[in-house]
Design brief:
The protein is mainly alpha-helical. It is 47% helix and 7% strand. Strands 1-2-3 form a three-stranded antiparallel β-sheet.
C-alpha cells in the first residue's frame, strides 16, 4: 500500500456533505497495519508529513534508529502529532524528548550527574542553574530551546541593576550546554540547539570579578592560629580543634569539602613521611591524592586523633564553615576585606598555601603538583598573590644604571682595548692604535687601501690562500685570521 492523502467527509446537522478543513494521511505502519492520521490544512505539507511518517515506519520495520534529519523533524512536530506517533509505536518514548516536559528530563539529568560521580553540591549547582535558565526563557519542551533565547535572557541578567558577573554568565552557559549534551548522549535528542554558544572571554571575566580573594600574610597566619587555639568554643568546635583545622588547610591547601571528608584512617602519621589521603570521590579532580604533612603538624594530629575511631570524622565541621572562620578572623583582628578589596574567606587559606609555595622559591611544577592543578597557569596566575614588597624585591635583580660607564665597558669586553677587528685593521695601516680608543674610520680606510695595493710577484691578482673560498673579500691572512697573524 502506498501513502494516501485525502480530506475526510462528513455530514453537518442539516444533512449536507462537507469536507474536513485538514488533510488526512493513510499509511501502513511497521506492523503492516493501515493507520490514518490527521495532518495539516495545506496539502503539500501534509504530503511531506506522510512521507516522513513512512520513513519512521521503515526504520521501525528494519530495526534501525532514525537519522539526524528525521529526528530533527520529529522534534519539530506539534505535541498532539508527536503523541500520536508514540501511541502508534513509531517512536521510542525513552529516546524522544519532544513529547516529555523538560522538568522530567531535568530530573533524569540530575540523576545522571550523581551516577557519574559528581558531588551533591555540584549536582545542586548545575541543576539550579539549568532550571533557572529554562524558567527564565519559558522553555517547556525540548523544541522550545534555542540559543538566541538563552543569550538574550543571560544578557538581561547581566545588564540588570545588580546583574550577574561575567563568570556567573559563563556558569549558566556551561550548565545549559551540559544539559543539552546529556540529551544528545542519551539519544533523547538528535543535536544540541545551544552547541554554538560560547562564554565570555577570559579578559571579561578577570575584569568583572565580584569577589577577589587575597592571601594572608605570615603574621596574619600566626595570629589566626594562635588566637583561635586560645579562643572559646563556638559553632560546635573547640578553639584548639579549629586552630588545627586552619593549620592543616594552610599547609596542605585542602578545600572545605575535602577537609570535611577526612577520617582518622585518612592520616598516615606513624611513618617517617607522614601524609594525608583524599579519596577520589571527595576530590575536585576525582583523583585520589596523598599529600605530605609537616612533622610538627603530624605530631599535633597524632595526639588529636588518638581517641577517635578509624571511620570517625577527623573534624566536627559545621555546615556554615564561612561564618565560623569569619568570627575567628574578627577575634584575631584580621580584616575580612582589606584596603584593596581582597576578601579573606576560608578558601583564601588555599590561596595562601599556593602563594607561599611560589614565593618561597619552590619549583613551579612542584607547586602545581601540591596544588593538584591540571594547568600550571591556574597555579601561577589565579592562586598566586604577590605583595608590593615582594614585587619590589624582584627589582633588585636589575642592573644599577647609575654605575660609572667604565663598569659597563668592562662588562661588554671593550674595556679600553678596542675590538679585535679594529686592532687588526689599524695594524695593517702600520699603527698599533691609540691607547684606550678603537681604530678610527681613517685608520680603517688606510688599512684597507694598503691591503688592496698589495700584488703577488706573478701578476696583478692577489696571492690566493690555499683552501680559501671565492666568497672572501680579501686574501690577507692578517685580516682573515687576526689571532694567528698579528
Amino acid at each position: 500500500m502506498t501513502m494516501r492523502v485525502f480530506k475526510a467527509t462528513y455530514r453537518d446537522r442539516a444533512g449536507r456533505t462537507r469536507e474536513s478543513a485538514r488533510w488526512y494521511v493513510e499509511i501502513r505502519d511497521h506492523l503492516e497495519t493501515v493507520r490514518r492520521m490527521r495532518a495539516f490544512t495545506d496539502r503539500k505539507v501534509s504530503e511531506e508529513f506522510g512521507r516522513m511518517v513512512e520513513r519512521l515506519a521503515d526504520c521501525r520495520r528494519g530495526g534501525v534508529s532514525p537519522d539526524g534529519a528525521l529526528m530533527r523533524w520529529v522534534e519539530s512536530l506539534p505535541p498532539a502529532q508527536h503523541d500520536r506517533l508514540m501511541a502508534l509505536g513509531l517512536l521510542n518514548p525513552d529516546r524522544v524528548a519532544a513529547g516529555k516536559p523538560l522538568t522530567e528530563h531535568l530530573r533524569d539529568f540530575a540523576q545522571f550527574l550523581r551516577e557519574r560521580g559528581d558531588t551533591e553540591k555540584h549536582v545542586r549547582l548545575v541543576f539550579g542553574r539549568t532550571q533557572k535558565v529554562m524558567e527564565g526563557c519559558g522553555f517547556v519542551q525540548w523544541p522550545d530551546i534555542t540559543g538566541d533565547k538563552v543569550t538574550r535572557y543571560l544578557d538581561g541578567l547581566r545588564k540588570a541593576e545588580k546583574g550577574i558577573s561575567a563568570q556567573t554568565f559563563n556558569h549558566y552557559v556551561g550548565a545549559i550546554k551540559e544539559f543539552c549534551r546529556f540529551m544528545v548522549k542519551t539519544r533523547r535528542a538528535s543535536e544540541s540547539p545551544v552547541a554554538h554558544l560560547s562564554g565570555l572571554k577570559r579578559s571579561d571575566v578577570e575584569g568583572d570579578r565580584r569577589r577577589e580573594r587575597r592571601r594572608l600574610t605570615v603574621d596574619e597566619q600566626r595570629r589566626l592560629v594562635g588566637v583561635t587555639a586560645n579562643g572559646p568554643k563556638h559553632h560546635g568546635m573547640a578553639g584548639p580543634e579549629r586552630a588545627l583545622l586552619y593549620r592543616l588547610a594552610l599547609e596542605t591547601g585542602l578545600r572545605v569539602g575535602e577537609l570535611r571528608s577526612l577520617t582518622r584512617e585518612s592520616f598516615n602519621l606513624d611513618s617517617e613521611k607522614p601524609s594525608v589521603t583524599v579519596e577520589a570521590m571527595h576530590a575536585k579532580n576525582r583523583k585520589e591524592s596523598e599529600i605530605p604533612l609537616k612533622r610538627e603538624t603530624a605530631e599535633m594530629l597524632r595526639g588529636f586523633l588518638a581517641q577517635k575511631l578509624p571511620k570517625a570524622a577527623a573534624f566536627k565541621m559545621p555546615e556554615r564553615v564561612c561564618e565560623m572562620f569569619r568570627a575567628d578572623l574578627e577575634a584575631a583582628g584580621i580584616p575580612y576585606v582589606n584596603e584593596s578589596g581582597g576578601v579573606a574567606d576560608f578558601h583564601s587559606l588555599r590561596h595562601t598555601f599556593i602563594t607561599t609555595l611560589t614565593t618561597s622559591g619552590v619549583n613551579p611544577k612542584i607547586a602545581q603538583a601540591l596544588a593538584r592543578h591540571s594547568d600550571i597557569n591556574l597555579t601561577m596566575q589565579r592562586y598566586t598573590h604577590l605583595l608590593l614588597d615582594e614585587k619590589r624585591a624582584g627589582l633588585a635583580a636589575l642592573p644599577d644604571l647609575s654605575a660609572p660607564a667604565a663598569e659597563s665597558a668592562a662588562a661588554t669586553g671593550t674595556d679600553g682595548k678596542g675590538t679585535v677587528l679594529a686592532f687588526c685593521l689599524a695594524s695593517e695601516g702600520g699603527k698599533s692604535g691609540t691607547s684606550g680608543d678603537t681604530a678610527t674610520h681613517a685608520d680603517t680606510e688606510k688599512a684597507m687601501s694598503a691591503n688592496a695595493a698589495q700584488k703577488p710577484p706573478g701578476g696583478d691578482k692577489p696571492q690566493e690562500t690555499p683552501g680559501a673560498s671565492d666568497g672572501i673579500r680579501t686574501r690577507n691572512l692578517r685580516f682573515t685570521k687576526p689571532l694567528l697573524y698579528h
